[in-house]
Structure prediction request, 320 residues.
Amino acid sequence: MKGRVTFNTDRCKGCGLCVSVCPVKLIELDKSVVNAIGYNPAYPAYPDKCIACTNCAIMCPDTVITVERLDD
Amino acid sequence: MTVIFQKTKGLTDTPFTYCPGCTHGIIHRLVAECLEELDILDRTVAIASVGCSVMSYEFFNCDAIQAAHGRAPAVATGVKRVLPNKIVFTYQGDGDLASIGTGEIVQAAHRGENITVIFVNNAIYGMTGGQMAPTTLPGQITTTSPYGRDVSKQGEPIRMSELMAQIPGAAYIERVMTADPVSVRKAKRAIKKAFEIQKNGGGFSMIEILSSCNIGWGLSPVDSLKYIKEDMAAYFPLGVFKDKGAAQ
Prediction:
């Protein structure tokens, strides 16, 4: 199953919980960016790996993440 | 393309005021998702407590009242008795519920009030700077127990779910945690069940949720989840402590 994660970057507090629970390790904290509230936000570094498991969105404390399932 | 996860309508667009990685945000979302899925959002009244969750009335997309410290179950009693068709829940931390509000929560359960209590246990007073709470674990270091909690002087941590399960008026008591995606899914099922019980007039329900306070504990957000799973869950066992519906 393929999926796509999108991040509401300006709400992200860079806690890294999504990074820790992603089974395919596609999320990273973007150290080159500081967002509107002063954190290094999470972003999908390897978006093609997404399997639409929603683990990241379930553990996100700030409801930053939206997950879509890509139909074949 | 199907959206399988997005922000629930049960939450407002106001950004949470919680620290990065605080699982209060997860628990807020679970409660809001349950309210939306049970289609009770328009007739729910939230009772905010005092503590980190003092601003929760800004975040839940339903009516809300902010109660005095520890008195949320008393305010909930009043709302529920005057407006019995409303779904009333309190959202309280361990400093609020297990310390200053112990009297109110015990008496509300004794009266068998048809309300739901969301009890967030993070073993510390987070908002005031990480002091020792009644739920602080033995040996745990806080700003007021710098050498670790000494049970010979400060006593054992209070297990609220076990205590509340002894009360005849309580209908449903369960303890869950927010340490990983699996336990968060289980926590949502517990919260939903509690609201269903209230919706069906089943009586008093309380869901205790083991939560993190990474700033107060001095751990990273990811290490805090490990602390919940390995240390907190060892002292506060998970499970259903009372289910009146199943017993009948």
Q: What stands out?
A: The longest helix of chain B spans residues 181-199. The radius of gyration of chain B is 17 Å. The interface with chain A takes residues 1-8, 11, 15-16, 18-26, 29, 180-181, 184-185, 220-222, 225 of chain B (CB under 8 Å). The longest strand of chain B covers residues 170-177.
